[in-house]
Amino acid sequence: QPTFDNFLELFQLSQSTWVPFYRYLFNSLFIAGGGTVLYIFIASMAGFVLAKYRLPGIALYIQVVIWAMLFRPEVMGIPQYIIITKLGLLNTYLAVILPAVASSLGVFMMRQFMTTIYDSLLDAARIDGAGDFGIYWRVAMPMVKPAWLTLTVFTFQGLWNMAGVQYIYDESMKPLPYMLSQVVSVGIARAGAGAAVGLFLMLPPILIFVFAQRSVILTMAHTGIKE
User: Fold this and answer.
1) Cα separation values, 146 from 52, 71, 108, 141, 206, Å
2) How many angstroms from the chain centroid is the CA of residue 147?
3) Phi-psi bin for 164: left (phi > 0), alpha (psi -120 to 50), beta?
4) Phi/psi zone of residue 88: left (φ > 0), alpha (ψ -120 to 50 degrees), beta?
5) What does the pLDDT look like over 184-211, one tens digit per residue?
6) What gap in Å lies between CA 52 and CA 35, rounded to an integer?
């Protein structure tokens, strides 16, 4: 029989804790939303430059981007922690966002799509008086919409499911997956509340994917990894 008792239990549980449930939810939304927007902006600009500009040593830069994709997150864990510590960003939202922004997958994907844009279109925009940023924003980005929508789905999902406990120690700044781990760790007594939190974790990525699923399919077909 369908019931909302689990959500009621979660609400009562969050009322009795030092940090309320909505604070964890806000932290996850801020980290996932802000990090996704920042990453799409940076990755698309870098991909545009690597695809359409002939700069000295640009072939080496492209190879570095490809080589960086070979490193697993486990390998980068300690260096990232040292860098975040040296920058004084521990216990901040940026400590979770910046490592995700440094990923090279988005740069590689955006460059692959940017190379399909005809140079004649960019030249026409320059003749009309558009600057470099105007060409990137008004010409290139609309033409590679499937790519950055697909990247939005992957980036948001990765940041949304990130607990970030290795960088954030303040309880009021920890995201929703951390709360879920704490609720579930109690055992079967709070299994219902844990399922309710799991539903909250599941809904935003599903909604974003439903909105962008057509673009994701086009991206998979374009990159040759569609089954």
Assistant:
1) 19, 26, 14, 10, 17
2) 14
3) left
4) left
5) 776 666 778 888 888 888 888 888 888 7
6) 26
